[in-house]
Target: Domain containing protein
Amino acid sequence: MPFKSLALSLAILFILQGCSQENKQEASLQISHEDFLVLDAHLDTPIILDRPGFDISSRHDPMHDYAQIDLPRMREGGLDGGFWVIYTPQGDLTPQGYEDALAHAWHRNSVIDKMLIDHADNFMPATTADDAAAIVAQGKHVVYKSIENAYPLGLDVMRLDAFYEAGVRMVGLVHMTNNQFADSSTDPDGLKWNGLSPLGKDLIRRANALGMIIDMSHAHDLALAQAIDLSTTPIILSHSGAGHLYEHPRNVGDALLLDLAASGGVMHINSLSAYLKDLETDPARRPALSALFKQLQENPLKTEAEAEAFLEARRAIDKKYPPDFATFDDVMRHIYHAHALMGAAHIGIGLDWDGGGGVDGLQDITGLPKITQAMREAGLSDEDIAALWSGNLLRVLRLVEASRALSHEMP
Ligand SMILES: [Zn+2]
Model:
């Protein structure tokens, strides 16, 4: 898609020339959604890449097998790629727990690598900020790697180095409950560390030295504030929302978002319905789904028949206790609020595909062009839209690359 880079260069030219409002509108007509470099900061698809029978090169139905990303729809929705997540569920903070989690994380990494090998014509690994445009120029999709939940590192932050070597360029410290590094925003037992633990601070210093983006989505506000203060590079939230619009612990309030922006950070907006607004779902739905996923965690799917039985059980829960989804407009409200509060240089997209994201009107990536259209109608310039779709994320990646270079220069 060399046209994409041409269109981007044209856009940059317009911007550099300090064009008039009229010219801006002309330029905006020239850049279609397809021609933006579109990256999502948090793709949970590796969770299902090794599901028996799952094929990323064929088209799936998000309402039938719950898969929200595949190659045909990446093309249709203009999604160029993003950060593909090595997610590990939180377990016990014990030597055995750490060991099992580490094996799990390496397995998830190998699942991403297998996709890169099996579909080398369509996907390419990316590790530097410059890689994204170069890969897209070859007509391929961009695969950065990130970690969601650093729990597998155990008590040794130097274990992060091997993940860096494997191509990981982003590390999220914590998930739904507190771990050895940080307090979670959603731990039912409340605070354990009052933010970051001493080991969590070491982990941030190690990520800074290695050249990895630090992702504080899921972290408690205290941990986020401390990470903003401590990190030498801007913090990102790879999939979060605005607490001003909906007071949920997973969302972040205005004061902290302004601190994030002041330090150069970026919040990527997610589309997980329960974080966007109050939902009216049958209270029995959540325990039913939790039980099913617990079962899945304990007995990973080994055959296509088992995978089909799992999906059938999930569909049965949906039928019995129908989901209540937030809407496309709810997602846009969070984007607009973050934009109005922090400015276009501090917002991005991390819709939590295959990790719980999806709302009415945006159940998979085929709806992404609607976001571009809505932002344009709301008066955002092409420059702002390009920043949201990838410019801000890549700016932070460039800064962590510089941080690595600096730390390697030191004696
Ligand atoms: Zn998450």
